Amino acid sequence: MSSDKVGEARTSKHIRLTSHPGPNATPVIRWGAATAAERGPVIGTTTHRQHRNVVGTHSGSYGVYRALAVAAGNLVKGHRADLTNTAPTTPIGPYPQWSDAHKIVSLDPWGAAVGEVFAEQLAQGYDIRPTIAVTQAHVHLPEIKQAIAFQRLQIDGKILLDDASATVTKIAVEPVWWIEGVAKRFNVSEADLRRVMFEETGGMYPELVTRSDIGIFLPPIGGQTLYIFGNPRDLANPEVTLTARVHDECNGSDVFGSDICTCRPYLTHAIEECIKGAQAGGVGLIAYSRKEGRALGEVTKFLVYNARKRQVGGDSADKYFLRTECVAGVQDMRFQELMPDVLHWLGVKKIHRLVSMSNDKYDAITGSGIEVGERVKIPDELVPADAKVEIEAKIAAGYFTDGVVPDAAALASTKGRDLV
Ligand SMILES: [Zn+2]
What CDD domains does the entry give (predicted)? Predict the structure, then answer.
């Protein structure tokens, strides 16, 4: 079966699917098709139900807020987005990976360009919304100011400006799941995945089980934000040195500077490396995924902190994963299987410098066909004292290091602070 046929929509007994949409037809989605016209638009409108060709709604994780706004009378039901001047500041793709159905299964490669590639359907009245937005920004970080002060970075007026801000292209990506492809990534049957997602969301999306003819799901989960240092087009050129970090959200550290983990220091170190790489003629990428607390959520995370610090013997590296498992039932729910999709969307073929020690991330990236050169670990001096428990436990569990892998005795003697 050729890749562009893999995602072809199944025949429906409920709705008439057509690739030649008239004002009342439901457009077909042929996931992985070579062009946007053949692929068809993703439509999650709640207004014209006959146009819908997905389970769920646009901006899935904000759907309940939208419902509240409508219920409270703040938002007119059926509001159509005015997309004037919202087009990407930098075009991304299309790249060959876009038309390989199984290369990208969890985002819509055409999601940034809907205003252009589906102009005709928009004019016909279809409510097609971008699931990706591309813009420009300047970012100010105290760690980068410090790197300039210590002369690790130099202002060049292009990547790093006189006020110590870095120029970036930033991209927000919302999830769009081709259910068949997602199921295959996890080696489960599509039917089982649909049933379990229906059950575990408390029956929130009955169409998952009643409408097997609809192959696309807009899940109510966080997406990703990309920060690109240098020219985004260079990401697809394996000849240009790419420095990249794929980072999973940790609000406590990333934003508030909590010192029990290495998240912010590693993130800002990666940004410094990205800037350095871009200034040397390369390109830098931070792919930030909204998977707070290993996708277990912040409440679970804080409960685990208490359990770690209150256990007999106090917080120690040898019990690090065990305490998470006691509270959450698993050590981690981030599942890096879908993470490389965004790299393929950007056309990435090779990451020369991967600023990550995670074996799960490394395996997912290389397993998806992207070459990885050097792996860059967090410098020891950037690990907060109370985060030694985390980093030592992770290294012992298989995280990349060029240093010593701690043994059982070393893990047991790596202690964290008490609760106060
Ligand atoms: Zn963290």
Answer: GTP_cyclohydro2
